[in-house]
Every structure is written in C-alpha cells, then in structure tokens.
Amino acid sequence: MEGQSVEELLAKAERDEAEKLQRITVHKELELEFDLGNLLASDRNPPTGLRCAGPTLEAELRGLARDNTQLLINQLWQLPTERVEEALVARLPEPTTRLPREKPVPRPRPLTRWQQFARLKGIRPKKKTNLVWDEVSGQWRRRWGYQRARDDTKEWLIEVPGNADPLEDQFAKRVQAKKERVAKNELNRLRNLARAHKMQLPSAAGMHPTGHQSKEELGRAMQVAKVSTASVGRFQERLPKEKAPRGTGKKRKFQPLFGDFAAEKKSQLELLRVMNSKKPQLDVTRATNKQMREEDQEEAAKRRKMSQKGKRKGGRQGPGGKRKGGPPRQGGKRKGGLGGKMSSGPPGLGGKRKGGQHQGGKRRK
Amino acid sequence: MDALDRVVKPKTKRAKRFLEKREPKLSENIKNAMLIKGGNANATVTQVLKDVYALKKPYGVLYKKKNITRPFEDQTSLEFFSKKSDCSLFMFGSHNKKRPNNLVIGRMYDYHVLDMVELGIEKFVSLKDIKNSKCPEGTKPMLIFAGDDFDVTEDYRRLKSLLIDFFRGPTVSNIRLAGLEYVLHFTALNGKIHFRSYKLLLKKSGCRTPRIELEEMGPSLDLVLRRTHLASDDLYKLSMKMPKALKPKKKKNISHDTFGTTYGRIHMQKQDLSKLQTRKMKGLKKRPAERKTVEKEENKSKRIKKN
What we know:
Order of helices and strands of chain B: HHEHEHEEEEHHEEEEEHEEH
CATH superfamily of the domain at 29-236 in chain B: Brix domain
Helix content of chain B: 25-40%
Radius of gyration of chain B: 34 Å
Number of helices of chain B: 8
Oligomer: heterodimer
CATH class of the domain at 29-236 in chain B: Alpha Beta
Region (Disordered) (chain B): 270-307
GO molecular function (chain B): rRNA binding
Largest sheet of chain B: 10 strands, mixed
Structural class of chain A: mainly alpha
Radius of gyration of chain A: 42 Å
Keywords (chain B): Nucleus
InterPro entries (chain B): Brix (IPR007109), Rpf2 (IPR039770)
Number of helices of chain A: 9
Helix content of chain A: 40-55%
Number of strands of chain B: 13
Protein name (chain B): Ribosome production factor 2 homolog
Order of helices and strands of chain A: HEEHHEEHEEHHHHH
Distance between the termini of chain B: 104 Å
C-alpha cells in the first residue's frame, strides 16, 4: 500500500513538473546553437513550415521567433546569477563567435634608449610629488610646466659670474641654453621614434658645425643643404663661378665580369629571344609614361598658343603649325618678335621642357 | 600613419585622449556605424536608415546630407568618412531604376573596406508605423538566425557575421535579466531574408524561467541578396587575428572526461614505499598482553637457536 502510494506520489510529482515545464519547453528537431556572450542563437532547422505559408507568413514568423526566443531565454536563465543593487544579474560567458577586428593588432613598441639603460642598470622611477615649495614666490608651484617652481629663465636678477665677459647678456644666454635643451630633447624623441619604426635616420654623419672642417666636408655639407629643400634643390641658385656638383647623375650598376654564369646565360638568352620575336614586346610602364609625357607637352603647347592668341592684336599666325607630340623640341626657336610676353616665354618654356625631359627620364624609371 | 601622428605631438591633454581613443588597442572599442544616404535616396531608404540609427543609437552616426558616391565602384570616399568619424561599420542607401531600394551594409578593417553586401528592400514597415511602445535606446538586443541557408553558402555566412557585428552592441560581462527587452530575428527563406524585431514580454510560468510572448515593435524588412564584395581569404584571416594576450590561457594538468569528470595531475617526488605512513587501524593494534607473548616466543626461538 505504502509502496504504491509512494510510486503514485512520484508519478504525480513528475507529471506536475512536466506540466510546469510545458509552458516553456519547445520541441525542435535540431538543437539551436547558442553564443550567450553575444546573446545569439542560431537555428539550423530548415524552415519547411514557412515555405508553404502564404498570407499567414507574419504569424508563422512570429511563432518561429517566439519558439527560438524561448529557447534562448531558457539558456540565459540557467546562467549563474547574483544580486547587484536589488536587480537580478546574470554573468555572461565570453562570446564565442569570432568576428573580425576593426583595427590591426598593436605592435609592441621597442624600448627607448633611456628605458633600455634603466632596465640594464635596474633604475626604477622614483615617485615624486606634483608640487614643490618655491621660496622666491612663497607658494607651492608645480615641478615642471607652466609657472614652475624654479624657472631660471624668469629671474629678474642674475649675478655676472667672475670669469664671464662683462658685455655678455646673461639673460639671453639662459634663454639660449633652454632652447638648445629643448631641441636636443626633440631630436632624441624623433630618433627614438625612427628607431621604433626602423625608419632610416637621415644620416648627418660629419655634418655638425665644429668650426674645424675641411674643404671636402664643407662642400658635402653645402651639397646636402642644397638638396634638402622642398623642390629637392631644383631652384637653388648657384654662384657665378660655381661648378655643378660631381656624381649627382643616375647611378648605373653593372654586374661583375664573371660571377653567376647561369644568370648571365639566362639574361643573354632572354635578350636574344626578345630580339628574335616577331611581335614587339610592350613594356606597359614605359609606353604609358611616354604617352603621358606627350600629352603633357601637347597640353602645354596648346595653353601657350591660347595665351599668345589672347595677348596678340590682329590675326597674325601663331608660330609653329602642328604641335604633335614628337621628339622633344628645343625651346626658344620662335619666329619673329612677338612681344614682350613671348620673349620671356621661350626661356622659361625651354627650361620647363628641359625639366620635363629630366622628369620624363625619371618617370621612365 | 601613426608614426606621423606621433611625430607631431598633441599639445593638449584632450587631443592626446582623442588620439588614444582612436589608436589600435588590444581589446577594442565598440564599433560605430555610419549611415549614409546616396545621391538618389528615396523616402523608403531614408526611413530605413533612420530606423536603424534608432536601433544603434549611441554607437552610430547618421549623415544628413546626400553623398554622391557608388560604394561598389569607388571606396575612397567611404574610407575617408570612416577615418574622420572613426566608424568601422557602414550602411549606404540609394535608389535607382536598376536597383530599387538598395542598401549596402559593410564593415572596415584598418579604415579600408573589408566586406560589403548589397541588399534590396522588398517590404518595409517602419518603427513609426507600428503603434507600440518601444524599448529604450542603447539596450543590447538578442539576435536569432533561423534557416539553414545561413550556413550553406559563403555569402550567407559572411552576411550572418556582418549582421552580428552590426547589431550586437557593446560586449558586457553581466546582464540584468529583466533588462532583456528586444530580439532581432533573421529568417532565411526562399532566397529572401526576413528581418523582424520584437519586444519581449515575460509571462509567469510554473517555474523560474518565464514564458515568452512577443510583440512586434520595430522595423521589419524583407531583404534580397544582390551583389557582394567580400574580402579575400587572407585579408579576412588577417582581420580575425587575435592578439596573444587575449587568447584564453590553457590550464595545464587538468583534463576532462566524457562524463564530465575533471581529472587533475599532481607531480610528486620519488617516495620510499617501505617508509610510507599508511592509516593506523586502531583495532588491529597489538594489545599489551599479546605483545608480551610475542616477545616471549621470539626470545624462546632465539634461545633455542643459540642452543
């Protein structure tokens, strides 16, 4: 009797449980995949019920959504919870879906020179106070920065030291020293930065003004200074008797006389093949550069023609008939005196064209 | 280039904080979205962009003016906007005869376009057309993808990843259970994607977990997949690279059984088994009387031996 009643009780308890859970259980053929960190659920079941639904699509969709949401909520409610300020809060796991980043991973920066030295010596940063007592002004001032405690450039009275020149400006000397310190600091910062990026430091080997430099060093320094303008030295004037610098043309590299026989054989055979082939091999870069150069010249010539026509009175024929792009012409060979504007045109134009030639050469590379 | 940014140092703390917010970090910021109108955007598309902006409220920028660009031909203008506003997700709406009601969703990696998917809007019901109460802005939505299409083709898979990225919101470690307010449901059916958003109503059920009832709240869209511009595999792999510091650390000497039992391994030094201290069973201890008899016997045997 008792056994039966116990069994009955158990069965009843089970039925009650099932009924309770009935409201929140959903039957699916394939289990959903959950990513609770993102509050995401993926349902892989093919939507067969929806395919045949026509006008009742919305209701069907809503039913499907309700089922899926119920499953997701069931999962979420099983997470460990805690009570934070009278609200029930669930702790979410890490999101498992891998999504692409928006920016690349930051590269670890190499240590600066000071940091390397400090690491080597075991120097640790000392904790310093922000404010320092300043006797002069009688108040607490910051250690560095605006209105700092001991700013020697702001003193109103400086005693001239015994060994100094009486006519020297001590105030200016202090300001100058400060500027030099700032410049040195900035230089070191940029050097650290360049080292961090492994960029090439502009080599200033031997170009520091010492006062005892030889003729060659001075010459080199002058050359470098000339080229370090925005136009890479193109518009720098030269002194009347100054010669153009040597060794500024294009560097040509030649292979050693006998070295890699296989490579030499290969290059010779390639050359022969190109020469023998019936179809001309087209180097696209060179072709486009040539085309671009010709077009530029045509444009320039047309513009010149327009400006000339505008400036001239009457209908005199402009110089030069066809202006097809061809071999670069020498500038300055214009017919007849055509006014002041014209005379200033050719030299400049010639210069431009020469420059254009030069640039064309560069572009060919 | 970040090197140039550091060559010219920011002069104020505010500028420094601004730049620090935008530089690449180990654990990233929440992705911002920019919503752009094309040169010929019509009322539908504009309303769609406004609704999506409402869904993504603090993490989105809605541009008011029309921008005459074509994302699939020229991505420079999009990249410029992304760089200026530090947004890595974008949505571009336009309309023309060939592609009516067009919506391009995309994401960026390092301010260059990573993936772009063009979707056509077939049916649209706006937020203001459905007269219900809406949920507060900035809540984290629940996302549900239904239909096996989302795993079959590469296009659909990337689209799924893109939609998750777009709508997921900030990553949080704790969430208030009563604050789960709305759910975005994407169904892939017959080549179309049905996007519906519902507000959640928690009803009492017999047990702790509540029963869910849904109420249609927000924008509902029927989308058709048109063109795609997906990133090449290696670029995608590069963008997925996780820094080593964030990878989950493996705990050594712990293994799990299929039944769920956890096994641990302890490494001991070499032990002398003869000197091992085992458990003392008090019942097996020799009584004093027994010990005496044993001793006597031993002595006897010894004496006998001697003799």
